Amino acid sequence: AADASDAADAADAADGDVIKIGFAQVGHESDWRTASTNSAQSIFSAENGYDLQFVDCDQDSAVQLEAVRGFIEQDVDYIIIDPIVSTGWDTVLTECEEAGIPVIVIDRTIDDSDKYISWVGSNFKNEGLAAGEWLKAYTDAKGISDVNVLVIEGTTGASAQIGRTDGFKEIADANGWNILDSQTGDFTQAGGQEVMESYIKSYEGQFNVVVCQNDNEAFGAIDAIHAAGKTCGPDGDIIVVSFDSVKAAFESMIAGDLNATFECNPLHGPRVAEIIQKLEKGEEVEKIQYVDEAYFDTSMDLEEILKTRAY
Ligand code: GZL
User: Is 217 in the pocket of ligand 1 (CB under 6 A)?
Assistant: First the structure.
């Protein structure tokens, strides 16, 4: 709230003009994405001195590039991008640079160009490592030595998918776990359910862990597991872990379906407003800003924690 009011003050302080912002958002595929959009739309409001041009790119990279070019034509003051995939960006970022419009990247990363002024988001490989380290401790404590894993990946080519895959695989390889398969569920609940239904047909009786690269995929996978008459969660036969830590994931853990969720903070609106506030005053900003993240599992007082969750 303090950041938000500072940002609002700064926007008012800046020569009094409205600050025009173009935001090319990934889409509307998950609870996490909804929280991300809400965070931006609530801070970049008219009463805070902004004119936000928001485009929901519906997980379509061509639409996202077109949205950025549209912002250049509108001659906005700043462009915010949450990149659906991490490559294919240098040409359009060069166009932004030539137009003199600073680009701020949030959440996912752009890996084939550095023509942006700042990035704020998560270390996705660390999230994957944390999930692997948690599973190691959990299976050791349960005396489970034979760990056979099915992975439901996020959108192919998204830095979140790449980092979570790499991090978890590093721990799996170090412990001799068997990753039976790894297919994309595109970060959606329907995708998680479809892939899990296929996995149950192909690998019935061969797996005891499902790693979903976001909570919504886990909700779909859990529906498929239950529909097949199988059990999951702390008292079930199948361990299910996921990423994001949205409120519905807490409800799933409390219901005994999900074992753990690894946090990925979507509330970048105030952070980006702070970056813009500094740029408006001619101050330097950090190029890379990681956010702190935790994890939550059924050993914790989840009802209590849920009371104060912001998303
Ligand atoms: C990760 C973010 C991912 C979330 C998903 O930072 O980009 O995209 O994990 C969302 O829920 O779809």
Answer: no
